[in-house]
Amino acid sequence: MWRKTIPGLLLLWCALSFALEMARALEGWDRRGITPRSPSTWRFGSPQLERLATCLGEVRRRVPPGRTIAYAAPVRPGAEKNDVFFRALWAAYLLPGDDVLPIQDPAAAQVAQYVVDDRAGLDLARLELVAQLTGCRLFRVLPPSPAPSP
Amino acid sequence: MTAPPSLLSGLIAAAAVLVLLALLAVLGSRFSGALVRSGDGALFRWVVYGMAGSLVAHLLLTGLDAAGVPWHPALLAGLLAAAIALAHRFGPERAERTRLPSDLGWGDGVALLAVLVFACTAWTLWSTTPDFVYHWGHKGQRFFLHQGVDYAWLARPWNWVLHPDYPNLLPELYAVSALFAGRFEPSALMLWSVAFFLQMLAVAREVPGETGDRRLAQMVLATLGLLAAFYGMGHLLAGAAEWMIALAFLTAVPALLRPPDRAGDWQVGLAAAFAAASKIEGAPFALLLAGTQLVRRLAAERRLDLHAMLRLGLPAAAVGAPWLGRVFHHDLFLGSNSGTFELSRAKIIFPAVAEALADPAWHGLSWLVLLGPVLLLVRRTRPVGFVATCQLLFYLYVYFTAPVDTRYYVLTSFSRLLFHLIPALVVAAAVGMQQKDQGP
Question: C or N terminus of chain A, fewer CB within 10 Å?
Answer without folding.
Answer: C
